[in-house]
Design brief:
The chain is 28% helix and 14% strand. The chain has 240 residues and is α+β, with helices and mostly antiparallel strands. It has two domains: 76 residues, Ubiquitin-like (UB roll), CATH 3.10.20.740; 146 residues, 2-Layer Sandwich (Alpha-Beta Plaits), CATH 3.30.70.20. Bound molecules: iron/sulfur cluster (2 copies) and FE2/S2 (inorganic) cluster. The site of FE2/S2 (inorganic) cluster has 12 residues, from loops.
Length: 240
Amino acid sequence: MSEKLVTITVDGRKISAPAGSRLLKVCLENDIYIPNLCYLEGMSDPPASCRLCLVEIEGEPGMVASCRCEIRDGMVVTSNSDDILKMRQVAFRLLVSTNDGHCNTCIANKHCELQQIAKFLRQPLRTKRLRHIDRDYPEIIDDHPVLMYEPKKCVLCGRCVYVCNQIPKGYKLDFARRGINTIISFYGSDLDPSSRDCEGCLACTEVCPVGALSSKKKWSRFIAEVKLKQEQKAARQSSD
Ligand code: SF4
Ligand code: SF4
Ligand code: FES
């Protein structure tokens, strides 16, 4: 039996999609970009924690997170008003208030979703409008046998936790601590922390939208390249 299609209007454009689809997914598939960080396709209960995907829906009070919203026939959506931009900018500034902003030495530089969203929202990655909060964590947490975690780059989107917990024999990444001190923990499972089972998986590193979680092998290669470039630059400068 074929899926029932419904028609919605987004920013004046009529779009047909299967009933019950997530509004964010429908927009993205129809080239209407809505910034998002905490959503992944297939999530049955999206956390809606980043608040970047807010939109307005005719007849509904306030703004709604499009990642949680299921479409229904006749829905009229605005995704690009000034008010929406302002709300998304506020959410973005909160997200980056703990970010170290060291893009030049980040493994995700130039393919980072946070950089793309900053550009879209016309916001800097180091904001002066909100006090920078320097969380009391090391730059790098490297006690996992295969993974490297940089807490000061983590936007706590939870994508890694979600994908890991979908894997039957996953390592069970989890959130640890609370509030401003929340981080990703490698110790949510009974698996032996010294096991190298994650080596053949790396699903969490693939969904990380920033440079916070990477494989140690890839990270080491990247850092070696950064150091080489820095040495070559210093050598050029000293010979000028
Ligand atoms: S590599 Fe796979 S199993 Fe290991 S923590 Fe990441 S998602 Fe979980
Ligand atoms: S490590 Fe990456 S995927 Fe995991 S919560 Fe942080 S930013 Fe999100
Ligand atoms: S993608 Fe909707 S709240 Fe994060």
